[in-house]
């Protein structure tokens, strides 16, 4: 009897698997036991070959060589991780290895990581699949007791491979076409471009917006406030000042009569559990975390702390088999601030309904919920604590009773005009207890005019006091934040007026997937198509111009969402992957033709007077995530340097974060309030206040933040854009 080889995606996960499987013998790139050998990838070890692999003519970028449409896509070993690939290939080819268990992440991309390695190494022996939703010892043991044949996941692999090939065909062809045509570092992609198009379109709407004046009318009646409502269309505001003034004059000094009192008992059901996109939205609203930041924190909570289930999920439901584990999960989180809340749920019995438990609404993974692992809150850093807090509170809320209240609506007639007031009496706080009364984050209901109303009967009359009209102005559409951009990517139909197009979009899975949306947004920042000002996202001139240059097809959220839907159908075995990839080749040909035929122009409007030290071209100034940067416009040069860095040091006068400018001895802190301080003076001042090691640690972190040239330049050098 030979060995079973286990292939994990990361070393940390491999160590967890090895511990459960009693493998204790550490070797170079793997861990051995009596029956199992556990090894790991480092993310992807194998990837699609660059265009250069398909012929010398692709080593230089020329319009006439496009589109690039290889008959068969080649796989290559990634140079940076070639050593680990060699280890894995050696293990796969060992004569005493009888079978392989794929234990990479249980999702589309995790499947691709493993299958490409297997294909490149030429492994032909039996393969099984470990499919788990949490990294606890218990989940790992249960997963190994229920290993599945890898064939059951073939369609998931075909979907993942189709996604990768589509992004290569669309992204690399259109990127080369744009870059050659306009002699600028321009890139486009299957998901990135329509996402950018939505941001540019929103900015255009804001630019064209002209505010309009409107008026609302209110008065006091019997000690509470009543609001005017147009009896013709139920609107609560008018755009006609004369009409508003006329109504105020008409009701001044008049008696009002209650014409209807309606009391309704209402229930507000708990929110659904988190999927990744909903969690990223709430984390952005409450903590200003980027989508990528939230995903990274989730990965730590999932892999290192083992406190939450698989993060890259698109489901907000659980399956029947999870229900027996709910009490154990509740007990594991009954610590610190959650103990009392959990006791309340256990006392009233967890509310487990079809609204939370629905097998039909879970595909690869169920909603994000806590694991049965005991939690030590002090082992979490502040970021992990914040995200864990959101997940735990949502989990408790989902299992709590509904929020129940009695709503009273009073309608009045005042001199022939309709007025109304609403009041709410809470009967049972239910799930809102978890949030101290607030169920959703930063979502104010404009129509929520609830107030405390006296016990009042139909036919009651009283004099109107202090009627007045209040002037307001219509507001432009709000700029996207990462939270609202994630919503727009998930449901692009909500942002389209055309009814037929809206319906088509709502039937698709949106732009990208929960697992890829964070990277798409991050890529738009890194390529300087968008920038942040506070929480708001603005398109740059480069981003706005790019949208005017790319073919119309590639800007369409409808088309891109339909492509994503096709990938989902491939994963379910309902669409042939070859048909999809061939369609992508046709689109690549069409898109490249559209770029070549265009008569548009591209102009850099951020040129500095400083020349690139490597190629002599004038550098461009861009706003990076950590501050201002100067970058070379020449694609083949790729030079970039940091000019200012937003530090974590606070201004001693206004307490805002300061910028670091200058080089060497001239490095200084600058604040927007006008405060300046040389770096040496800052070190001296800080050295007097805190431990010198803390100052040194701070400076090391700043240098790390500044020195992003090589990593970012390398990442962007190949221009692989989704």
UniProtKB/TrEMBL annotation:
The segment annotated Interaction with DNA runs over: 187-192
Against SUPFAM superfamilies, the record matches this protein to:
Prokaryotic type I DNA topoisomerase
Q: Which UniProt keywords apply?
A: DNA-binding, Isomerase, Magnesium, Metal-binding, Topoisomerase
Cofactors: Mg(2+)
| Record domain Toprim: where | 3-136
Which InterPro entries does UniProt cross-reference here?
Answer: Topo_IA, Topo_IA_2, Topo_IA_AS, Topo_IA_cen, Topo_IA_cen_sub1, Topo_IA_cen_sub2, Topo_IA_cen_sub3, Topo_IA_core_domain
User: Which GO cellular component terms are attached?
Assistant: cytoplasmic replication fork
Q: Where does Mg(2+) bind?
A: 9, 105
Instruction: Write out the catalytic residues in the record.
Output: 310 (o-(5'-phospho-dna)-tyrosine intermediate)
GO terms under biological process: DNA recombination; DNA repair; DNA topological change
Reported EC number(s) for this entry are 5.6.2.1
Q: What is this protein called?
A: DNA topoisomerase 3
Q: Under which main EC class is this enzyme filed?
A: isomerase
Q: Where is this site: Interaction with DNA?
A: 61, 168, 176, 312
Q: Which domain of life is it from?
A: Bacteria
Gene for this chain: topB
What reaction(s) does this enzyme catalyze?
A: ATP-independent breakage of single-stranded DNA, followed by passage and rejoining
Q: What does this protein do?
A: Releases the supercoiling and torsional tension of DNA, which is introduced during the DNA replication and transcription, by transiently cleaving and rejoining one strand of the DNA duplex. Introduces a single-strand break via transesterification at a target site in duplex DNA. The scissile phosphodiester is attacked by the catalytic tyrosine of the enzyme, resulting in the formation of a DNA-(5'-phosphotyrosyl)-enzyme intermediate and the expulsion of a 3'-OH DNA strand. The free DNA strand then undergoes passage around the unbroken strand, thus removing DNA supercoils.
An example molecular function term from Gene Ontology annotations? DNA binding
Where does the Topo IA-type catalytic domain lie?
A: 153-592
According to its UniProt record, which protein family does this protein belong to?
A: Belongs to the type IA topoisomerase family.
């Amino acid at each position: 009897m030979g060995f079973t080889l286990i292939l994990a995606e990361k070393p940390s996960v491999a160590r967890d698997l090895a511990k459960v499987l009693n493998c204790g013998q550490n070797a170079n790139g793997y861990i051995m036991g009596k029956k199992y050998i556990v090894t790991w990838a480092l993310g992807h070890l194998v990837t699609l070959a660059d265009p250069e692999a398909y012929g010398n003519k692709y080593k230089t970028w020329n319009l006439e060589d496009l589109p690039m449409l290889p008959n068969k896509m080649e796989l290559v070993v990634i140079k940076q991780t070639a050593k680990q690939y060699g280890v894995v290939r050696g293990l796969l080819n060992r004569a005493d290895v009888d079978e392989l268990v794929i234990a990479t992440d249980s999702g589309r991309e995790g499947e691709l990581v493993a299958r490409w390695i297997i294909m490149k190494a030429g492994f032909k022996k039996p393969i099984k699949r470990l499919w788990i939703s949490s990294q606890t010892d218990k989940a790992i043991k249960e997963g190994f007791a229920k290993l599945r044949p890898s064939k059951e996941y073939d369609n998931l692999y075909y979907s993942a491979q189709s996604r990768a090939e589509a992004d290569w065909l669309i992204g690399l062809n259109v990127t080369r076409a744009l870059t050659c045509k306009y002699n600028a570092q321009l890139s486009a992609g299957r998901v990135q471009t329509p996402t950018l198009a939505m941001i540019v379109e929103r900015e255009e709407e804001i630019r064209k917006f002209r505010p309009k004046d409107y008026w609302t009318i209110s008065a006091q009646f019997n000690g509470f406030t009543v609001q005017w409502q147009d009896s013709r269309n139920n609107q609560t505001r008018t755009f006609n000042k004369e009409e508003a003034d006329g109504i105020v004059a008409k009701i001044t000094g008049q008696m009002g009569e209650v014409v209807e009192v309606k009391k309704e008992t209402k229930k507000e059901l708990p929110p659904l559990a988190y999927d990744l996109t909903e969690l990223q939205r709430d984390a952005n609203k409450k903590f200003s975390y980027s989508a990528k930041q939230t995903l990274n924190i989730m990965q730590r909570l999932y892999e290192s702390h083992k406190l939450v289930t698989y993060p890259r999920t698109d489901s907000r439901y659980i399956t029947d088999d999870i229900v027996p584990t709910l009490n154990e999960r509740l007990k594991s989180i009954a610590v610190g601030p959650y103990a009392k809340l959990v006791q309340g749920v256990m006392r009233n019995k967890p509310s487990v309904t079809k609204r939370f438990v629905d097998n039909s609404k879970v595909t690869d993974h169920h909603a994000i919920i806590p694991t049965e692992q005991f939690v030590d809150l002090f082992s979490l850093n502040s970021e992990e604590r914040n995200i864990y807090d959101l997940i735990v509170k949502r989990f408790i809320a989902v299992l709590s009773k509904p929020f129940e209240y009695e709503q009273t609506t009073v309608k009045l007639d005042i001199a022939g005009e309709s007025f109304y007031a609403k009041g709410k009496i809470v009967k049972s706080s239910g799930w809102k207890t978890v949030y101290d009364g607030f169920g959703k984050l930063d979502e104010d209901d404009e129509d929520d005019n609830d107030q405390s109303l006296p016990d009042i009967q139909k036919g009651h009359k009283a004099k109107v006091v202090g009627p007045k009209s209040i002037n307001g102005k219509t507001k432009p559409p709000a700029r996207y934040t990462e939270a609202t951009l994630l919503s727009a990517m998930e449901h692009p139909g909500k942002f389209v007026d055309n009814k037929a197009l809206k319906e088509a979009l709502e039937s698709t899975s949106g732009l990208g997937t929960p697992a890829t949306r964070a990277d798409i947004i991050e890529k738009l920042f890194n390529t300087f198509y968008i920038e942040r000002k506070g929480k708001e996202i603005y398109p740059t001139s480069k981003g706005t111009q790019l949208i005017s240059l790319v073919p119309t097809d590639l800007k369409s959220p409808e088309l891109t969402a339909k492509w994503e839907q096709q990938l989902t159908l491939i994963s379910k075995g309902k669409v042939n992957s070859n048909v999809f990839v061939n369609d992508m080749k046709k689109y690549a040909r069409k898109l490249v033709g559209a770029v070549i035929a265009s008569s548009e122009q591209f102009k850099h409007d951020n040129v500095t007077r400083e020349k690139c030290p490597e190629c002599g071209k004038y550098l461009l100034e861009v706003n990076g995530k950590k501050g201002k940067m100067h970058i070379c416009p020449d694609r083949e040069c790729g030079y970039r340097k940091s000019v200012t860095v937003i530090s974590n040091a606070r201004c001693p006068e206004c307490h805002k974060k300061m910028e670091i400018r200058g080089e060497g001895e001239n490095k200084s802190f600058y604040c927007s309030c006008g405060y300046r301080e040389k770096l040496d003076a800052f070190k001296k001042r800080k050295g007097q206040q805190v431990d010198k090691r803390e100052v040194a640690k701070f400076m090391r972190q700043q240098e790390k933040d500044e020195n992003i040239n090589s990593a970012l330049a390398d990442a962007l050098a190949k221009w692989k854009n989704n």
